[in-house]
């Protein structure tokens, strides 16, 4: 497979050179004539000058393509991430050398681009294995950071090491080797994620006096780093130690970094930059080291993974109840719901106590629909299914509604009335928002669940029921117990089999399926109109929205947008979306002034779409915190497309004037908030 390296100049992509990958090669890219790939004159002069003489090296080794920076002044970027060490390249890839943008793709992927092959004498085989190259590169970067006091560059290199780490031991070793180069030490040892007893034992072993911990303690509270640390000047003349306390939940974890120096240089003091590098570097990687250690322990404990796949019949029932979804979390919930219906609920038929399930999920995640599916799957399907929202009835009436009452039991009890437990006998009773009830009510309900017996209000006679009970809440049960709103003994009884329904923001891949299924249903209800679908721009807004109301909110917004779209128009576009939804996603900021409304009414359709596109791009950049790669992923567009659109917005901001334009600029700035500098940044 051959590769095509392309240049992006003036928004055009032109093939530059073809790289033959049939054998190992190594080419340097830069401005120097001695480089194997010299930036051509077709690149504007101001961009060419941003490229160093020898800027980066592209090479292959053992069938893998690698990219590394060659001490460039303006950095080397791979898919919008700074590259220092040799980094594997996966195709297709976007490169940036200073201000020059490049694309690297397989030749088969771009047959439309003409290219000239790289001359055979310009390619040379890599002399060293990639592992040796990376190791040497770490040392070189460390020495350069020490000599030039570029501790920020050194921290960026540590971040690069952390991003590529897969095991805690390898990350710790890489950081030790790199730090040794930065500090000019013979060797560096990093003790991380220490508990307080472990930390004390280590300081005693290293003969670090306890009084030094207090004497040299420095309290730092900044936006970038909130921790307490103490750095100790050399003890024994040849060792320097740093102690860093990193908050981890309710306790602190401790790191100790030892730097061992040449015995011939006792008493040497390190610069403040070196101390700053150590404090920030260890503070940066400590949480990742802890997470990797925990993950490795979990992987070691896993014996066998269980496939959580619901049956075809379960999927069919979920479709009928509009419980749509293909995400892992959704399938897992449906899998356990099917097990509950078929194997758990009917397992205690001869017992007096009632079988109970518990649903935990935010409002709008489909708890009621799932309860109906479980009822239809169970052996109680032929009997009634009753649903009661405990938050929708007054607390004083909850007991009479659930247990029933006799004539004269209270002022409005003109006749006797059966309660929900009686009405649901032999079937299923679903009680939503059980956390909204009182402790007294929960205590009485607990007795019914344990015995299957209850009494109507105003009656001393005992009645029996045998129904399945499904309880649900949208709040964390543990928090409810801690606040006293949920009895602990009640939670211990009902929470044994809990099914969690994930919120829609944690199931972004299901949004497309939900939109598709709902549009199919609405199109079927309007057979005389042309079938409607959502435009790419409108769907991108749906993907970017955080959906606090979950599936219920999505369905409601779709129904409103469908109704606002003219019957003869097949596309649901941004102008048809409800104003409340647009405000939520950041396309508009509050009600528009009358002047803006009047101006919009005079605009052509294309002009209005350009306004919506600008607002959407700015809102998405703010939502992604200025990360253009994440913007491209959410918008499902290439990075180059996002870059071109952003350039158009900047050009519009620069060239457009007038009262209407200034009002729109102000709105865009309000939408962007603190990320406005990303919108205005030049040369990106």
Radius of gyration: 33 Å
- In round numbers, the mean pLDDT is 77
Enumerate the strands of the largest sheet in spatial order, edge to edge or round the barrel: 2-1-11-10-7-8
Give the number of helices.
Answer: 25
**Could you name the ranges where pLDDT drops below 50 across 5 or more consecutive residues?**
114-134, 145-149, 212-237, 247-251, 264-268, 589-596
Distance between the termini: 32 Å
Percentage of residues in helical conformation: 40-55%
Largest sheet, described in full? 6 strands, antiparallel
Structural class: alpha+beta
Shape summary: globular
**Number of DSSP strand runs:** 27
Tell me the fraction of residues in β-strands, as a range.
Answer: 15-25%
Task: Kindly describe this structure.
There is one protein chain. The chain is an alpha+beta fold. The chain contains 25 helices and 27 strands. A six-stranded antiparallel beta sheet has the order 2-1-11-10-7-8. A five-stranded mixed beta sheet has the order 4-3-5-6-9, with no helix packed on it. A five-stranded antiparallel beta sheet has the order 12-16-15-14-13, with helices on both faces. Strand 7 and strand 8 form a beta hairpin. Helix 2 (about 130-150) runs antiparallel to helix 3 (about 150-165), helix 9 runs parallel beside helix 10 and helix 22 (about 630-635) packs across helix 23 (about 640-655). It is globular, with a radius of gyration of 33 Å. The model is unreliable at about 115-135, about 145-150, about 210-235, about 245-250, about 265-270 and about 590-595 (pLDDT under 50).
């Amino acid at each position: 497979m051959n590769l095509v390296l392309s240049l992006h100049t003036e928004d055009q992509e032109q093939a530059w050179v073809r790289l033959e990958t049939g054998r190992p090669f190594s080419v340097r890219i830069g401005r120097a004539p001695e480089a194997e790939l010299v930036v051509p004159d077709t690149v504007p002069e101001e961009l060419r000058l941003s490229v160093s003489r020898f800027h980066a090296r592209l090479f292959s080794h053992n069938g893998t393509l690698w990219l590394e920076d060659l001490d460039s002044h303006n950095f080397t970027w791979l898919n919008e991430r700074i590259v220092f060490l040799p980094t594997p390249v996966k195709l297709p890839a976007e490169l940036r050398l200073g201000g020059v943008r490049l694309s690297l793709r397989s030749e088969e992927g771009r047959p439309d681009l003409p290219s000239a092959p790289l001359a055979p004498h310009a390619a040379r085989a890599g002399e060293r294995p990639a592992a040796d190259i990376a190791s040497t590169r770490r040392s070189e970067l460390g020495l350069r950071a020490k000599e030039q006091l570029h501790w920020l560059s050194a921290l960026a290199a540590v971040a690069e090491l952390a991003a590529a780490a897969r095991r805690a031991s390898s990350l710790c070793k890489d950081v030790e080797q790199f730090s040794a180069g930065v500090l000019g030490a013979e060797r560096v040892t990093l003790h991380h994620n220490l508990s307080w007893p472990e930390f004390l034992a280590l300081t005693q072993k290293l003969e670090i006096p306890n009084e030094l911990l207090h004497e040299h303690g420095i309290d730092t509270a900044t936006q970038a780093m909130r921790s307490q640390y103490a750095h100790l000047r050399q003890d024994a003349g040849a060792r320097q130690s740093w102690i860093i306390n990193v908050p981890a939940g309710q306790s602190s974890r401790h790191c100790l970094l030892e730097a061992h120096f040449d015995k011939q240089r006792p008493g040497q003091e390190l610069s403040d930059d070196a101390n700053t590098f150590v404090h920030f570097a260890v503070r940066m990687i400590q949480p990742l080291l802890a997470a990797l250690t925990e993950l490795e322990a979990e992987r070691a404990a896993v014996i066998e993974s269980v496939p959580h796949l619901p049956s075809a019949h379960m999927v069919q029932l979920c479709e009928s109840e509009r419980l749509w979804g293909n995400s892992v979390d959704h399938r897992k919930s449906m899998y356990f719901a099917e097990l509950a219906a078929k194997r758990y609920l009917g397992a205690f038929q001869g017992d007096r106590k009632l079988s109970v399930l518990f649903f935990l999920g935010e409002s709008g995640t489909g708890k009621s629909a799932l309860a109906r599916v479980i009822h239809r799957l169970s052996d109680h399907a032929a009997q009634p299914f009753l649903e009661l929202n405990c938050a929708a009835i007054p607390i004083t009436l909850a007991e009479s509604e659930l247990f029933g009452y006799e004539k004269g039991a209270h002022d409005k009890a003109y006749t006797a009335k059966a309660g929900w437990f009686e009405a649901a006998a032999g079937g299923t009773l679903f009680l939503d928002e059980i956390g909204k009830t009182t402790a007294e009510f929960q205590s009485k309900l607990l007795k019914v669940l344990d015995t299957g017996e209850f009494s109507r209000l105003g009656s001393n006679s005992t009645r029996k029921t045998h129904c399945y009970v499904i309880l649900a809440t949208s709040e964390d049960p543990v928090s409810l117990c801690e606040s006293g709103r949920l009895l602990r003994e009640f939670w211990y009884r009902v929470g044994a089999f809990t099914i969690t329904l994930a919120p829609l923001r944690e199931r972004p891949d299901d949004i497309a399926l939900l939109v598709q299924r709902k549009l199919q249903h609405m199109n079927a209800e309007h057979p005389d109109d042309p079938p409607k679908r959502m435009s790419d721009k409108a769907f991108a807004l749906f993907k970017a929205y955080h959906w606090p109301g979950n599936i219920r909110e999505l369905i409601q917004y779709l129904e409103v947008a469908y109704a606002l779209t003219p019957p003869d128009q097949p596309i649901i576009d941004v102008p048809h979306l409800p104003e409340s939804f647009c405000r939520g996603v950041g396309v508009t900021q509050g009600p528009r002034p009358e002047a803006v409304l009047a101006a919009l009414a005079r605009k052509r359709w294309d002009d209005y779409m350009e306004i919506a596109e600008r607002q959407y791009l700015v809102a998405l950049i703010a939502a992604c915190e200025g990360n253009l790669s994440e913007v491209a992923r959410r918008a499902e567009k290439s990075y180059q497309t996002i870059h071109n659109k952003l350039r158009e917005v900047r050009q519009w901001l620069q060239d457009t004037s007038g009262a209407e334009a200034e009002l729109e600029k102000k709105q865009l700035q309000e939408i962007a908030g603190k990320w406005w500098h990303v919108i205005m940044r030049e040369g990106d």
